């Protein structure tokens, strides 16, 4: 299902969708976005949450982005990369002026983001972190990221993600 959200007011016939901290942040910022929902199937997680989202929504995986938390030792940083690629931790570290980055512990990612794995959104996180968006996102008109829970994504312009989150871009993905 697709629902237009953001700057336009909801029409009375539109189904009511759940609000998350992510959608609240986007709405407060006046960003035009769409909510994309699907029924998450925990029994079919062979390739990961993002690949499941792309398949269920019928969207090219190159336009669906996952939100990953990395630990720099003294702080954590958020990387937003295509679901069909892999995060290059050396490139992430270089993009923020760090010597090394490792994936953050999943419990830490959940605690600091306020979201569950498979539903971590770059928006509305409990703890503010620096955000790095894969530079390839700039080639797309719109990208899809988690809206704050499994089976609940948002579609928006990559430039809007950058503006709202004060994100930087860098080539972060390998295939």
TrEMBL record:
User: Membrane-spanning regions, if any?
Assistant: none
In the record, the note on similarity to other proteins reads: Belongs to the prolyl-tRNA editing family. YbaK/EbsC subfamily.
In this protein, which residues make up the domain named YbaK/aminoacyl-tRNA synthetase-associated?
52-162
Output the Gene3D superfamilies linked to this UniProt entry: YbaK/aminoacyl-tRNA synthetase-associated domain (3.90.960.10)
Give one Pfam hit by family name: tRNA_edit
Which keywords are on file for this protein? Aminoacyl-tRNA synthetase, Ligase, Lyase, Protein biosynthesis
Q: Which GO terms describe its biological process?
A: translation
Q: What is this protein called?
A: Cys-tRNA(Pro)/Cys-tRNA(Cys) deacylase
The Swiss-Prot or TrEMBL record annotates one GO molecular function as: aminoacyl-tRNA ligase activity
Q: What class of enzyme is it?
A: lyase
What InterPro entries does this protein's entry cite? Answer: Prolyl-tRNA_editing_YbaK/EbsC, YbaK/aa-tRNA-synt-asso_dom_sf, YbaK/aa-tRNA-synth-assoc-dom
Enzyme Commission code(s) on record: 4.2.-.-
Where is the segment annotated Disordered?
Answer: 1-24
Identify the NCBIfam families for this entry.
YbaK_EbsC
